[in-house]
Amino acid sequence: MTRDLHSIVLNVNGDEVTVRVEARQTLAGMLRDQLGLTGTNLGCEHGVCGACTVLLGGRTARSCTLLAVQANGRSVTTVEGLAADGDPLHPVQQAFADHHALQCGFCTPGFLLTTIEYLDEEPEADPDSIRERLSANLCRCTGYHNIVAAVKDLLERRTGR
Amino acid sequence: MIPAPFSYFAPDTLEEALSLLGEYGESAKILAGGQSLLPLMAFRLVRPEVLVDLGGIEALSRYELAGGRLTIGSMVTHRTIELDHRITSRCDMLREALDVLGHVAIRNVGTVGGSLAHADPAGEWLAVALALDGRIMVTGPRGNRDVAADGFATGWMTSCLSPDEIVTGVRLDMPGPGTGSAFEEVARRHGDFAVVGVAARVSVEGEAVTGARIALAGAASTPIRAHRAEALLTGTTLSGPDLDAACEAAASETDPVADLHGSVEYKRRLARVLTRRAVSRAYRRASAPA
Ligand SMILES: Cc1cc2nc3c(=O)[nH]c(=O)nc-3n(C[C@H](O)[C@H](O)[C@H](O)COP(=O)(O)OP(=O)(O)OC[C@H]3O[C@@H](n4cnc5c(N)ncnc54)[C@H](O)[C@@H]3O)c2cc1C
Ligand code: FES
Ligand code: FES
After folding, report:
1. In this complex, do B34 and A66 lie within 8 Å of one another by their Cβ atoms?
2. How far is CA B215 from the centre of its chain?
3. Which residues in chain B are contacts of A136 at CB distance < 8 A?
4. Please, which residues bridge with residue B171 across strands?
5. Which of A4, A53, A64 sits opposite B6 (nearest CB)?
6. Do A115 and A53 share a structural domain?
7. pTM above 0.90?
8. Average of pLDDT values for B190-217?
9. Does domain B7-53 have CATH number 3.30.43.10?
């Protein structure tokens, strides 16, 4: 079959980009291979591990189980969009660093974006819901404890508890 | 992993989508959220030559709660319903089912119509539709039809849809006054498909059950209704022996398949235990003053 190419326009980390993609190209594939944004990691590639999580229109989505063409006209935030090179880290990134919430770092971009959506949607969330929310992402290194501590800290600072 | 090549169409209208399906026939597949289809395509278990993306058809992304009835367009995401408190405060079953359907990132993208059409025996939506007397709205080259949720799935991951038909939405009866509902499931990990799930809706007058709906997910090759258990509950006040008998009946109405998540015996046991929990909670809610 000849390659089915589509021209799509989307906003990636604040910049409007036009990309020609094969219909079968995933959003993750486009971000990594065509835009060079390799912070979005691919683990399972079928929606289970959460490593590839990005924000699509401000909401988390698995970029491995989404076609790039499905993101046409939408805005996408990847880990690269959280803080520019040389700028201070995003508060969520800083909290992960402070709490040693990463070891190899493979899962971290996904956890950061999952956390950002969570804090955004539920600024007053009960800390008990943290583990449930983070269960969308898998980590093979940390044992989760320090990730939960980082998010709890962010939540407590937010609510002044 | 990347899907095999295919041609992609994103029609703006239902008519265009239907004509594309008509033109490409069995070589075409509908794309909704892609949360079930794209993994299958990545593994190359499914290799459509054409994908027809319904994402651009605005009419399918609407939903409405009116007169005790919830009508949901097929492209409405799980998360949209989950975050609408008008709906979740009216229907505990839906709230509890959506809370355990995948993860937020899946619910942000996956659609109600995609779930129904996918007809996974362990999917929450079809079980909920069974318990809420759901009607699935379908359109195709031969016009529109309404299919009762009970009978929509015809076998393991198969439905009565033909390849040129599109699910446009589902209509659900919301529990009214004197009716309570609940959803219970056991999954291996948070966000996984249910091993077994139970949706229950119970109507009560005084202390007596006047009607019950019990639907089970993961307990047979399709989601099923436990008709005998429903009949056994009706007229009772949910005393110990009556509830025991109904839960036993529900378990015997299942036809589970043993897999790595559990044996037939284990799944039957889950059906019995989860039916008890869901029915008891629905009954309590029905009896609670509004
Ligand atoms: C990690 C993970 C966990 C999940 N956990 C759960 C879970 O616990 N419970 C659960 O129920 N689901 C779960 N899902 C699946 C998810 O709910 C999907 O969103 C849903 O099953 C399919 O919806 P979709 O919109 O993504 O459809 P798609 O994947 O786009 O389509 C699914 C199938 O339905 C067909 N189809 C789609 N829309 C229509 C339509 N309108 N008319 C006719 N045919 C159509 C497609 O051709 C395809 O065959 C999970 C998915 C993942 C990746
Ligand atoms: S790589 Fe996308 S969820 Fe695992
Ligand atoms: S830090 Fe290594 S996978 Fe999470």
Report:
1. yes
2. 10
3. 103-106, 191
4. B71, B135
5. A4
6. no
7. yes
8. 96
9. yes
User: Which architecture does CATH list for B60-173?
Assistant: 2-Layer Sandwich (3.30)
Helix, strand, coil shares of chain A as percentages rounded to 5?
35, 20, 45
- pLDDT at residue B290, as a whole number: 58
Average pLDDT, chain B: 96
Does some domain include residue A143? yes
Mean pLDDT of chain A: 95
| A119: its two tokens | 């804090």
CA nearest neighbour of B176 among B91, B87, B97, B88? B91
Pocket-forming residues, ligand 3, beta carbon under 6 Å: A 102-107, 139-142
pLDDT of residue B35: 98
Across the A/B interface, how many CB contacts are shorter than 8 Å?
A: 89
* Interchain CB distance below 8 Å, B189 and A135: yes
CA dihedral for A89, A94, A100, A101, sign (positive or negative)? negative
**CA distance linking residue A60 with residue A53, whole number of Å:** 6
- What mean pLDDT do residues A80-96 have? 96
- Give the max Cα distance, chain A: 59
Q: List the single residue in A with minimal CA-CA distance to B3.
A: A24
> Closest Cα partner for B168 from B46, B48, B32?
B32
CB contact under 8 A, A24 and B3: yes
- The domain B179-287 is placed in CATH, from the list 3.30.390.50, 3.40.50.2300, 3.30.70.260, 3.30.9.10, at 3.30.390.50
Which residue is associated with the tokens 């009706």?
B234
Best interface-test mutation with A: which of B38, B50, B96 has the largest number of A CBs within 10 A? Answer: B38
- Can you give the pLDDT at residue B23? 97
Least Cα distance to B270 among B220, B236, B201, B209 occurs for B220
How many angstroms separate the Cα of B260 from the Cα of each of A81, B195, B200, B257? 41, 10, 27, 10
pLDDT value for B249: 98
Residues of B in contact with A61 (CB under 8 A): 105, 108-109
Per DSSP, A67 falls in state B
